[in-house]
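Quick one, tokens below:
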């Protein structure tokens, strides 16, 4: 395989919350820096954070080419800015949430291998709860409109991995059409050029979005530390 790059999409401040003394972003970058499948790492942050984040991460690169670029006002804009920073001869791009520090190396390898074969692959898990379709999700008195079979559903996680040229076309098309997607897969799906494969993920690959998630994150980090202790 040629060059594979990891783009960390982060537009909030959650990636800088401290987890056992280090920002969550650092823990996440370490997972990709340790992967033999990754050659480049691009991190998107706010303009005011560029210098200090670059200084923070330079010791985490471990031989990878690591760049910090200015993000945008949305995830989509941040990932697009990261894409522009990549070399045109990049084969695959793995987009990962900055606040998912518990992705494991085996899953990274599996989703990259799948995308190398098919052109597009994401990590996903089957929901354990019954999923209801309602009239309005944010309404105080929403009415159920149906029950969606779980055997046809997955909850999308990251990494989401795509051929570089395919992902570039997906972003170009989204800009032309004024389309805003919730993830990169939704942009690629619109092209109808490839079917996006799903690689089984893990309940441990949590997205840390609220203070309560930190308790679970500390437990997972302690377990990782214990597992890798000599």
């Amino acid at each position: 395989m040629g060059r594979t790059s990891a783009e960390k999409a982060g537009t909030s401040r959650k990636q800088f919350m401290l987890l056992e003394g280090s920002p969550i972003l650092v823990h996440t970058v370490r997972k990709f820096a340790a992967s033999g499948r990754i050659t480049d790492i691009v991190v998107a942050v706010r303009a005011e954070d560029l210098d200090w984040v670059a200084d923070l991460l330079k010791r985490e690169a471990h031989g990878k080419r690591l760049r910090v670029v200015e993000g945008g006002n949305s995830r989509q804009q941040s990932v697009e800015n990261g894409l522009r920073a990549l070399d045109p001869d990049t084969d695959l791009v793995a987009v990962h949430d900055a606040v998912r520090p518990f992705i494991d190396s085996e899953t990274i390898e599996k989703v990259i291998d799948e995308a190398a074969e098919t052109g597009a692959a994401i990590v996903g898990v089957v929901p354990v709860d019954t999923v209801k379709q309602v009239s309005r999700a944010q309404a105080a008195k929403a009415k159920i409109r149906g029950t969606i079979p779980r055997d046809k559903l997955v909850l999308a996680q990251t990494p989401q991995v795509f051929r570089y040229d395919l992902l570039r076309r997906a972003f170009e098309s989204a800009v032309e059409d004024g389309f805003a997607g919730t993830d990169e897969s939704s942009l690629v799906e619109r092209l109808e050029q490839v079917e996006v494969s799903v690689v089984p993920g893990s309940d441990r690959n949590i997205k840390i979005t609220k203070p309560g998630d930190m308790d679970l994150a500390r437990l997972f980090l302690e377990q990782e530390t214990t597992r890798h202790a000599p």
